Amino acid sequence: MNNSKTKPKIGLVLGSGASRGWSHIGVIKTLLREGIEPDIVCGTSVGAMIGAAWLAGNLQKLEDWVLTSTRTDVYKFFNVKLSQAGFVDNDRMSRFLHNYVAAEDVRIEDLPKRFAAVSTNLENGREVWFQEGGVADAVRASMAMPGLFPAARNDHRWMVDGGLVNPVPVTTCRALGADIIIAVNLNSDIVGKRNSNKNTEPDTKEKMGMLQNIKQTTREYSNSFFSERDKAEGAPGLFTAITQSINIFQDRITRSRLAGDPAEVMILPRLAHIGLLEFHKAAEAIEEGEVCATKVLGEIHRVLELY
Question: CB 227: neighbour CB atoms within 10 A?
């Protein structure tokens, strides 16, 4: 037991996981209600976005948006042009980040707590920690999923999603000085699950919104990519194979990284039923985050008592 009167620094690690990442909102809200306020926040991809939104004072604004968004709202971020580097409209995404995460002039070094967003250098595969500079720029670099989001240019480097190298960045948080780390792993149950829910088609109104933003010829593509479900007895579709491949490598990388440097407390939302880009299912993801965080509150207090 540490007899020092120094209060331990609590680190919060928010992992990657695309639409499953809305559960981070539920986790943060639960911790704060319990009086557990992290001193250091590190995130990868969607985890970086939500961690940054909280530190910039925009978490409630972001939650309000995601709880009222539909498939159509998500489709609006996509602009299918074969000549561009990704399917996400970069200008629209920038406006979203500035409105709901952090304004364009907000810098990481000005945030009230230490923060790092994890990204990957596309040229050499090295892990990069953004600890200074524009918050929105760091978040964009951290969540630039190859093929979906355009790679982000930073300091003469092309950056892509940090989930390629460190999906749950406990090592980053430890290096920034955290004594006790609470980590959220969104990848614990995603491998080996194929969803049987057959309600895969958007309603008529949502289809119209989709068709206004995505060419008719890509309708089959979009329906496949936004939902990972296929008939159980049939071969997986092209984009189901792609997204499940993403799930597999993130699961394996996560297991390997956490084996070498585990968190003191791990939160494991069960969200395998939510597809990679089913962002409109925010309500159930947030609720699952709250439920899972509540379950480990006793464990968190026991760890804190050791210091």
Answer: 24
